[in-house]
# Entry
Amino acid sequence: MTARELDAAGITDPLLRDAYAHCRRLNARHGRTYFLATRLLPVERRPAVHALYGFARRADDLVDDPGPGRTTADRARALGALQRCLEEGLRGGETAEPVVRAVAHTAAVYRIDHRHFADFMASMRSDLTVTDYPTYEDLRRYVHGSAAVMGLEMLPVLGTVVPQEEAAPHAAALGIAFQLTNFLRDVGEDLDRGRIYLPADLLAAHGVDRALLRWSRDTGHRDPRITAAMTAAAELTRGVYREAAPGLALLDPVSRPCIRTAFVLYSAILDAVRDDGYAVLHRRSVVSRRRRAATAAGGLVRVAAARIAARRPAVPRAGVPHRPQEETS
# Structure
């Protein structure tokens, strides 16, 4: 499948093909939900998505998986080296870093604004020292770089039926919704790294602080205050999904099944968290294989419908301007 994707995208240079294949493996290994959704994209667009994910994964790993004995200063130096490599790659220079080689090529092909990469790296640097966020507004500033820009980087790859600036707020919101979902699901794991991504004021409104979270994580005991706070965090996240939802109809019809599938599957993580009683400090909630398969199957049906519609010539009615066909389900 990798060779078919690369051939369709017109990527022929052996080193570049290896770089994209490396990014695809990272996506398959670490981003199961998103990788599944990406399989619904037109084959020639998939390598670009893998490149964007692969670079983000590489940076995130430098922050979160430092290795034994590595200090914050060591991680900062590694992240700085990656950023310099990225800047050189975006200028058209040579690089030995596979994820940079692929993402720089993707940025050039799809004319992705380089500011998005700079904002992303700024959020990655903040993860080295920032361990909590007093308010939701503080968190939104962080997730602009860590998540919203991912949605904005994706837009040129996905294509839109309106000017990109019209779709951009919804794309940014979807990136944020995905990350807020991960924050809620991974509260326990993030706490073990010393970080709390849920806003402190939201937690405090329900009588929750770091000490209570740590106690619950360490003892395995539940507390109704924590359940209430996690419920509130889930509702906040669902609100961001509502901000993002109108953007689905603004995408190129052949890209909508991919993003709709990701939308449904990530939303389903919130359902799984709810069904687990918001026990996110004690276990990781997952979407069942049956639901994942059913959602993917629905996506395949939409892919087929979109391709048929794309091949069918449009015949506008007299006096009615043609509008791009929108998804109805």
